[in-house]
């Protein structure tokens, strides 16, 4: 059969189809798969899933047009090959409902990691740096923005959690894109102004010892010595945006784009 349902576990079935079905065209093949999904629900199933080859773009489109939401990648499950997992639950919002259609789009459109950092300065023109437990380089205080969290609120939360400081995040100084590196996907780093403080504020810091090894206000020379090159460039770009002659508001790895 060009398409079929296979029981996986109680209430769960897997829909699969052949390349012959896809040759009928996207709409026709998606309609047939969607019909099988609906028949599975009428038969008592609560979940219908599909495992799709990451290299088969047509099959991915068939799954999407059939209303299956992308859930992630199962690694090494098919003859040591990866498979993209698509699925639909019996109580998912119908696709005819705008919310259901938006949920479908949201399941497969690209997502990008966001990191929020805070530029906290001392009255003697130094910058607060954190020595982290999980890498050798120093960095600005901050962290990853949680799902559905405001980046501006996220950085204030991170600073309070990791340093015990309640500092309100001011204006956005810099947006810095970080390319894929060392096992990390790419990310967008947002640097917010944390204002100017007396150097003695360091004495009030309560470190989250699991992540923060030490904290200190550092000069530009010390920043260049202690930080990765792209971090030092990011800090210097953010500092320039505090002055009367601001630098670029967007950088990539701390570098401004050619004009």
Radius of gyration: 25 Å
What portion of residues is helical? 25-40%
Average predicted local confidence, pLDDT:
94
CATH level-1 class of the largest domain:
Alpha Beta
Number of domains: 2
Give the beta-strand count.
14
Structural class, please? alpha+beta
Give an account of the 3D structure.
This protein has seven helices and 14 strands. The longest helix has 17 residues. With 259 residues, the protein is of the alpha+beta class. α2 crosses α3. The radius of gyration is 25 Å and the shape is elongated. A six-stranded mixed sheet has the order 9-6-11-10-13-14, sandwiched between helices. A five-stranded mixed sheet has the order 1-2-3-5-4. It has a three-stranded antiparallel sheet with strand order 8-7-12. The chain has two domains: 106 residues, 3-Layer(aba) Sandwich (Aminopeptidase), CATH 3.40.630; 144 residues, Nucleoside Triphosphate Pyrophosphohydrolase, CATH 3.90.79.10.
Write the layout of secondary structure elements.
Blueprint: E1 3-9, E2 12-17, H1 19-22, H2 26-42, E3 47-52, H3 57-65, E4 69-78, E5 81-89, H4 98-108, E6 113-122, E7 127-132, E8 138-139, E9 142-144, H5 151-163, E10 172-178, E11 187-197, E12 212-218, H6 220-226, H7 229-240, E13 250-252, E14 255-256
Parallel strand pairs: 2-3, 6-11, 10-13
Antiparallel strand pairs: 1-2, 3-5, 4-5, 6-9, 7-8, 7-12, 10-11, 13-14
Helix pairs in contact: 2-3
